[in-house]
Each structure stands twice: as structure tokens, then as C-alpha cells.
Amino acid sequence: MKKQLLCTSAIALGVAAAPASAQDWNLDWGGFFQQHIAYADVSVPGGVGAPDFDGIQMFTNAEIIFTPNITLDNGMTFGINVQMEALNSGGGADGIDEAYMSISSDTFGRIDAGYENSAGYKMMVGAPQVGSMAINSPSASAFIPFTGFAGGQFRQAGLSSYTEVAGNNDIARITYYTPSFSGFTAGISYAPGTTGNAANGIANRTAGGTALTDIFDIGVNYSQSFGTTDITLAARWGTGDSNVVGVSDPETWGVGFQVGFSGFTFGAAYAENDNGLAGGATDQEGYSVGVAYDAAGPWTFGLEAYIGEINDGGGLDDHYEYYKLAANRDLGPGVSWTTYLLYGETRNDSVVNGDIDGTAIGTAINLSF
């Protein structure tokens, strides 16, 4: 498929295979800027005095990414990846999102150390996303707001198949990725706790990271071409140690695939989070499914869905259900135009009239540099 802009900040380190001359630093940088505007029609319970989300709304997703690197005479590449949110406090008080160091070579593989997502998260694959508005993430709430637990469950299966243990995000960890063996790659991550440069409040963690420690994640990915057919398979699992009496160790797992042929790409993923919370478990599951078509010329079209469920531990569930029909046109190097139709609904069973649903028609200009 044509290059697609994803609404995510998990962008891997871009290191040169071999610089023009060894032991010269490549002071690389780049980034993306996605500007959305949409008209939304949203149904919100509450009657008189309820918030009004109808009308024109705007959404911006943008980062500047610094990736300086150097390749030594022995073939080892050392580099960093520092991602600065373009909006105020997008990655915390200082606006910095991921920040980590990498050491890599063709025969050694790669080590990442610093504030970044896990190998399991980064190696997963799901339904193909066309354009820059993601529904396999919380991004769609910019136009159709959430209700219930769905409003705060970041990096968990109720909202996305790209999960982390207890929803941690960009915490201090070390990850090793193997070299590719006939299309097969594996990765393993370890984080001592949940201390991170981008705070993310989850009920079974504390700001100091003492409630959840020793977080392990593993991921595997297989990508290969057979004639005119491209196949990608992925799986991940992760767990951590709960230090709270009566709270079991949280886990997450997921599987996903994509198959492409004759301009079509089909994909799906399924994920679960077992958060282990005593007396109010928010165990979650969700799946993505979709198809994209890379038409002759500059256009790509796609249809995608994400369905998620969050269990509050008392027999009441919250639901997340979003659908997207999209078209993306390449306008030039690093420039594309997206148009899309969204339908979404979330349901909070623990609240009377706790449903929100809506439709949005939107467009975006996407810049990648």
C-alpha cells in the first residue's frame, strides 16, 4: 500500500543503514503534522443542560522527532529518538513524549533503552488504517466523545488492540529486538516500574511506580512475501508484579494479521487486558477488523471497525464501537489529503441513559517530513 500516516506517537528510530563516511554524526530530524476539521452530530443523554458537541470541531496531531545517529567502523549504529509534541504539554509538562537510545547492527539486532513503549506494543499489527484518523485508539473522541470507563482507558483493549500491561505508556524500559530471520523477528522488554516521562493514571499504579513493578513484555512478528501476496502475523504477551495486597498480577495479550494481494489489504487483531483490580476489575477485550484498497493512481480507500468491551467487575460493562470509511490521496512527497466518515457509540451500563453516539464527516491535510 501507499505510505500511510498513522495517528500514533509510537514511531520507530530511523537509523541509516550506512552513512556516507563512518564516524560522522547524522543530525537527522523529521516529524508530522496532521490537521483535521469535521462536522459532528452527537447524541448526548441528559436533556436540558447537557453538553452540545454538534457542529464543526478541529483536531491536531503533530510531533517533531529528533533522530541523530552515528555508525562506527565496526558496523554498530548508536542513536537517539526524542519526540517533541507540537501542542503544549502534549507529552507532559515539557512536551516531550518518547525519549530513548538505540544500539543496533544487521547481525546484532537492536537495543532500545529509555522512555518508550514495549516490544509487544510496537510489534503488533491490526486492521489497515487509511489516512490519519485512528479509531483503533482514543483519537476519534476529538469529534465523538466517550462515556463510562472508556474515557480513561489508554493503551488498553477496550479502546485499542495496541495494548500495554495495565495501560502503562512510555515508561523507563529496556528492549531487545532480534535481527530478522527469513521474515521472523522477536522482541523482549523489561521495565522496573511505571515511572515515566508522560504520566498516565491507572488505578492499580501510583505516581512513584511502587504498585506495579517488574513489567515483562514479549512480541513476535513474521512478515514475508509469497509471489504477489504479502503476509504479516504478530502476537504479544506481557505481565507485571502487583505489590498491592489482594490485587492479582495484571496481564495483556494479543494477536493480529494483515494479508495483501492485488491492491487489497485485509487485517484484524484481538487483544485482552486483565488488570487484576480487587473489587472493581476493569478487564478489557477488543478487536479491530478492516480492509484497504490501493487503487491505481494516488487514491487509497478503506473500511475499518473497532469493537471494545470493559468489565467493571460488578457485572456491568462499558462498550466502545467505532466505524470508519476513509479515502486518502497522495498529493506529493510527504503530503496527503484524507476524507472520512465516522460513526461511533459508547455505552456505560452503570449509568441510566449512559449512552453517547454520533456521526462525523471530516477531512485532514497530513504532512510528513
List the helices and strands and how they pair.
Elements: E1 29-43, E2 55-66, E3 69-71, E4 77-85, E5 96-105, E6 109-116, H1 119-123, E7 171-177, E8 184-191, E9 212-226, E10 229-242, E11 251-261, E12 264-274, E13 283-294, E14 299-311, E15 317-332, E16 335-348, E17 355-368
Antiparallel strand pairs: 1-2, 1-17, 2-4, 3-4, 4-5, 5-6, 6-7, 7-8, 8-9, 9-10, 10-11, 11-12, 12-13, 13-14, 14-15, 15-16, 16-17
Largest sheet: 16 strands, antiparallel, barrel
* CATH architect. name: Beta Barrel
Uncertain stretches of 5 or more adjacent residues: 1-21, 198-209
Could you state the CATH homologous superfamily? Porin
Q: Number of helical runs?
A: 1
Give the tally of structural domains.
1
Shape: globular
Residue share in helices? under 10%
Question: What's the level 1 CATH class?
Answer: Mainly Beta
Describe the overall structure.
- The protein has one helix and 17 strands.
- With 369 residues, the chain is an all-beta fold.
- The protein has one domain: Porin (Beta Barrel).
- The protein has a 16-stranded antiparallel barrel with strand order 1-2-4-5-6-7-8-9-10-11-12-13-14-15-16-17.
- A hairpin with a 5-residue loop joins strand 3 and strand 4.
- The longest helix is centred in the N-terminal third of the chain and has 5 residues.
- The chain is globular.
